[in-house]
Amino acid sequence: MPPLGWFLAQGMIPLGPDSSDDDEGPCELPDGRLVCGPHGLTVCGKCCVDYNFGNDVGADYHYTAGFAEVESEEDAVHPPSTGPPPASASHRQQARATPHAVAPDISAPGLEDILNPDPLVEHPKGTGRVFPSKFTPPSSAVTPQELFSGRRKIMLVTRYVLPHDARTGLIFADGACLDNGQANPRAGWAFWHGTGAAGQQLVASGRLEKKGPYGDEGAQTSNRAELRAVIAALRFRYWPGERFNRLVIATDSEYVVEGATNWSRNWIRENWTRRAGPRSRQRTEVKNKDLWQALLGQIEKFKTGGMDVEFWRIPREWNTVADAAAKQAAAESDEGYDEFQDLMGINV
Fold first, then answer.
1. Where do the segments described as Disordered lie (predicted)?
2. CA-CA distance, 11 to 178, in Å (whole number)?
């Protein structure tokens, strides 16, 4: 397992099955903020602590539409006649826009909103009440970087958003498997979720665990790794807490996109079984059932928080960052974890 400093450099902390509340007490991050020791959270529902008293929350938050450097006036964001005055200087929104762009009406979230008092520890199972949809770009030729040219900064991390809709964010995800289908396959997953303070790409990755979130044994396959990448991306943060109402997952996996938006509807109706063959009357359990249940369950959870999840199937050549990181993770010399691991992101 990498040292804690590696996780912090990527803006994340490891949460495994052995995480506990034994090491209680605050921990000071490199930027001076206080977080709980076991989970790295400013507001941690599991430890029942709130270290906001020592932190200036929400102070570093702004939105950039495209790459223009045109400053808008503060009262353009909060007009005196209609909008409420900002509670304090630390919660003011600094809006940047192109000359014809409209500043987004978003209140700057504090860390208590971003992290959410309800930690993403449990893995709810999808019930079929909510399904994701496909994202439709205005043109098949437009790349994700071209379309999501807006920039939205939360603390020290910058997200990719639509130029005129800062509530729609973008994440790239991919999985890979070396020696797929052979004797000793090794799978890895990765997702690219933004840039850091120095402009570096923030990519989270890992080896595919031998067991799923509910303890089921899982094979090392590319399909399972692709699913795992999306689950990791969704559970990395409580995205509705960053004021997103739509999160677009860009992936080159037809298996993930069609399975999440289309095939899973029939699987749930048939109690997670499918025909053994085109003309067969026998039914077998859907492959990777545990990860599909976890994926749909997380999407349902976010829906209750006011955020939709959409999938954008992109060409492989548009997903090189996540693809390279997933292959690198699969090639790691260690055998990886047996039990399912969670990575919960923090901004450092």
1. 72-116
2. 27
**What is the identity of the amino acid at 244?**
F
pTM score, whole prediction: 0.72
Question: Treating both helix axes as pointing N-terminal to C-terminal, what angle do 289-304 and 222-235 enclose, rounded to 10 degrees?
Answer: 20
CB-based contact 169:160 (threshold 8 Å): yes
Pairing of strands 150-154, 61-64: antiparallel
Tokens of 274: 């499918």
Instruction: Give domain limits for the chain.
Output: 4-345
Domain 4-345 - what CATH class?
alpha beta
Judging by DSSP bridges, how do beta strands 201-207 and 186-195 pair with one another?
antiparallel
Structure-token pair, residue 24: 């209680």
Give CB contacts under 8 A, 24+ apart, made by 218-223.
Answer: 218/288, 218/290, 218/291, 219/185, 220/177, 220/185, 220/186, 220/187, 221/177, 221/180, 221/181, 221/185, 221/187, 222/175, 222/176, 222/177, 222/180, 222/187, 223/175, 223/253, 223/255, 223/287, 223/288
Name every residue whose Cβ is closer than 8 Å to that of residue 270 and which is 6 or more positions away in sequence. Answer: 283
